[in-house]
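Q: Hi! First time asking for a complex rather than a single chain. Here are the components, and I think there are two in total. Is that enough to go on?
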Amino acid sequence: MPSKSKQEWRDTTLAGVLKRFPERQERFEISSGTEIEPLYTYEDMERLDYTEALGYPGEYPFTRGVQPTMYRGRLWTMRQYAGFADAEESNRRYRFLLEQGQTGLSIAFDLPTQIGYDSDHPRAEGEVGKVGVAIDTLRDMEILFQEIPLDKVSTSMTINSTAPILLAMYIALAKKQGADAAKLDGTIQNDLLKEYVARGTYIFPPRPSMRLITDIFKYCSQDIPRWNTISISGYHIREAGATAAQELAFTLANGIAYVQAAIDVGLDIDAFAGRLSFFFISQNNLFEEVAKFRAGRRLWAKIMRERFGAKDARSWMLRFHTQTAGSSLTAQQPDNNVIRTTIQALASLLGGTQSLHTCSRDEAYATPGEEAVTLSLRTQQVLAYESGIADSVDPLGGSYFVEALTNTVEQEAMAYIEKIDSLGGALAAIEQGFIQREIQESSYRYQKDVESKKRAVVGVNMFVSPFPKIEGLLRLDPEVEKRQKERLAQVKRDRDSEQVSVALKRLEETARGVDNTMPAFIECVEAYATIGEMCDVLRGVFGEQKEFLIF
Amino acid sequence: MTEEKIRVLVAKPGLDGHDRGAKVVARVLRDAGMEVIYTGLRQTPEMIAEAALQEDVDVVGLSILSGAHMELFPVILETLKEKGVKAIVIAGGIIPEEDIPALKQMGVKAVFGPGAPTQEIAEYIKHAAAEGKG
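A: Yes, that's all I need. Here is the structure of the assembled complex.
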């Protein structure tokens, strides 16, 4: 043990130097504004009980990782979020990515698909195939997964309001391909609470939305046991401007609301909790992000075991996907984005993520092109195979700084969760505008800090210089919208319209009643009912949600 | 002498839910002394033009990140004209540089892309509104 305490060092050695050479900033802080000390030592760890706070990988509270072997056993899933134009075009991109060594698929849907409008709906004008692939009926899914066997690939689908429909299509397609439902592996986002505050693709009011979500929990626990039924997402909350602690807190608070909703409809916690998954961002502050991931695992394990009394160890595990931060990417000097993405990817891996999407350098302009996406995938491959970071579990565990930050982020997140509990839970906090206001305050403060240069953005507010234009941005062929509308019309001509109306009628009756809606969705998609038709039925039964507008 | 406040409509056309930029800009403009009306998400051209008319705004700021600007902006500009709204139209969001000349041709006065300082937007509006009223 050193002869000197940290305070003594501060008063003597450090103070002496600071008199002559002051620090370059008055204050150093993490995203929540909490101050960072110049040094962390063993003293900061003295009150840390190893077993209680850290434990071993694969054991409660999983601070050091959810699996005992982590990346020594199997590397994380490299999963680039992609989808563009129509099903043919996207299928080509998926097969290209798989050929390049990607290990899982991640489907981006266009906005009409996400909001429940068919491609020929007036509200879909100009949006078809823009931010993802356009899907109207099962026919599009058949094309989307051509030559991709569903029992051999894990597929993540970023879909929320229309998640039951896309899941039903996936199940129906698997049946057509002859794949065993029990072997289907993948994830649907299915997280509506964050849509109301950050991402914006809600259709229905919260209560029926929660019912659709718990229907999926129940259906999957019986029929597709390996499916991740939800991806409780902090990503969009952070992108909307939240701090790291807010991202973690609001995500876990939403998680608590889903678990409670499932318990309230009579589900046994250990029957569904092991299939809950999470989705976080990785931002630029490397150590704060690592701390956030570690704190998240510890917090969720405690919540599940102590608050909800889950008994199965799998129910305690916070398993998560990470995406690097799109909002951190700049239009100025876009090559710098490759470096930002590398640091963020590194943080998520040091934080023990299960899968990762790395953003591309051209994202401040457009949906990424093929060359840019390949570079992003190569970034992960260099980290995986060359850097050595995958060779030991939780390599930053025990770092004085990282452990102290892990505690800080955990405490800050816990304080928010308690506040949200006192407001009546996540949904009540959203209805009261609490979460939206907190996010907006942080986002406003961030913008002020950038413009006052308190926060540096290289190439934007410092080291500004001319930069070459990005060439070859991806552009959507205007023919795509036309082609998609034609295919939709063709499907409508070919299908048995009697079968469609019977299925839609059954969906309506089920939605009005209490039975699980999933079988009714499957019946609809198998009859080639469109997403718009199914959503119109549900709009009639459930009503539509207006924006919880706080400004 | 009381100076009349500049009235700005900040609108989100299209279906995307990325409102961080729109909300920050709206707040900055309000802090700069303007009267700001924020529409919320998923506004149709008709809704935007109607709000601009009802609120009698000097400036309409369109924020879009879905990539549907080339389809939606002409319709918005047309609908504004039909309703006799004379406001200055500016835009922001994810808009590739190569689209900007065409947007200006349509009548969008300025486009502020990612990284544009909000103060620059506020200054632009002050000058443009002064000229427009002058």
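A: The beta strands of chain B are 7-11, 35-38, 59-64, 88-93, 110-112. Let me know if you'd like any chain examined more closely.
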